[in-house]
Specification:
The chain is of the alpha+beta class and 302 residues long. Helices cover 35% and strands 29% of the residues. It contains eleven helices and eleven strands. It starts with a helix and ends in an 18-residue tail after the last strand.
Length: 302
Amino acid sequence: MNSLSLPLDLAKRHFDWSVEPLDLCADWPQLDRMLEAEGWPFTRDDIAMSVAQPGSAAMVARHHHKALGFILAHHFGPVASGDMIMVDHGQRAGHPMLSVDLWLQLENTLEQRGFRTIVAHGTRRSSRAFGLFGFQPGRPFTALRREPLAARSDAALPDTLGPADLPALTRLDAEVFGIERDAWVRSLCALPNARQVGRHDQGELVASICLRERRHQILFLDACNALSFAALRPLLDQVLAACSQRALECMAAVGSDLHHYLLEQRFFVPAAFAAIAPLVELRSGPHSDIGLGDQVRTLNWV
């Protein structure tokens, strides 16, 4: 029996809840409220993309048909990514075992499917709790933001990558991340709130960025992929110049060349994130190099 089973059983005697499969259509209004209250930028499209991945798992904790918390997971090859767990802020103090139950049920599902290596990301507060489940802390990430600039630029965005670029985009993503993620890259390209831009050198795609519209009209710089920063920087320069009138954010690996570059470009850590920073990558199970390379400059798991 897991050492947390007894306190979990005792907690449920006083406040019974159930953990069930997520119904995105029915549950989204309550999930949306939780995300908004916590200040996380994720949208319905982000949740739907995770749920749509082959072998994904999505669960919600309910009490009298009301969603109190949720957890999502998908996988890249042999590594499972349990990268979104959230409990309604009003329930945390009174019912701290809600998140434990969600995680234990997800962990059980992943183990039944044969996954032994699990990656998660936690804030300064929540990452400590992952130690209860045998996770070891690793690379930290930080949110960076730039407000719209006063000076207007006439620079144009790079050309959008289209269907013909998908094989090259998938190849570059695999070289950066450490494993081919065809379904993931296809899903990113199909998102209505996303746009893939890239830079070619002698006909070869050498850098790409996924621009994703998120909450409050913030444009996110995701999947900033290149094998060298020298290949990525010209693309970043062009994107930042063309988007000078937009609020921009990026979740960058702390200490990376991208992190230092963005700070030079007037990005800063938002106050709300500074209170919980950093976002720590945590791993349990057998070692895997997937997602660990220096070329992984952004939070490429979600």
